[in-house]
Every structure is written in C-alpha cells, then in structure tokens.
Design brief:
Elements lengths: L2 H39 L2 H8 L8 E3 L6 E4 L4 E4 L10 H11 L13
Antiparallel strand pairs: 1-2, 2-3
C-alpha cells in the first residue's frame, strides 16, 4: 500500500472514531440531561413552586417519583414533594411520609467485591 492511501485510511479512521466518540458522549451525557430538563419544565406547577422554594437549589437532588427530590442541608436531609394546596399526597407518598415520621429510615451501603 502506498503512503498516500495509508494516510487517507488513517484520516478516515480517525474521523470516524472522533464522530463515534461525539455521538456516544451525546447519548450518554447530553441526551439524559436534555430529557431531565424537559421533565422538569413539563410540569409548570413544579417550576412555579421552585421559584419560591425556601432552600438552596444547588443542594437539591431530583428523584422524580414518588418524591420529587431530596434536599441535603448541613443539619438535616429532607424528602421533598412539590404540590399545590389543592393536590393531596398519593397513597405511596403518604406511606413514605408515615415511615419517615416513624423514623423507619435507614442508611444502607452496598459494596461489591472487586
């Protein structure tokens, strides 16, 4: 094979690898974030409630269901449900609320063997 052909094959392979890397990065990082943003903006009442949210937003981690998220403060951890005054808790949310009131919350650490 001559040098020019080898160079072209190398450049085409390199370009294909870069393109595959960009697509893979998009699928694993950007696309899930985009879906998350859509899910948060799809519920206008939730966005409206976040505007008056009394805690620092950077310490909030969204879960989605059955609780909307967890707020990590220096002295407490809060399970957060966003709802308007005319919406009741679901049965599952009420059950979780009761478990928390009864202090049936446990730290569980799962370690895998290497």
């Amino acid at each position: 094979m001559d040098v020019l052909m080898t160079s072209w094959v190398f450049l085409i392979g390199l370009g294909s690898g870069v393109l595959a890397g960009v697509l893979l990065s998009f699928r694993t990082a950007v696309h899930p974030l985009h879906r998350r943003i859509e899910s948060l903006t799809a519920h206008p009442h939730q966005q409206q409630l976040m505007d008056t949210y009394p805690f620092p937003r950077h310490r909030f981690r969204s879960i989605g269901d059955p609780v909307d998220g967890i707020q990590f403060e220096d002295d407490q951890i809060l399970f957060v449900v966003f709802r308007s005054s005319d919406r009741a808790l679901t049965n599952e949310q009420s059950r979780i609320h009761q478990l928390i009131k009864e202090k049936k919350v446990t730290w569980y650490e799962y370690t895998t063997a290497q």
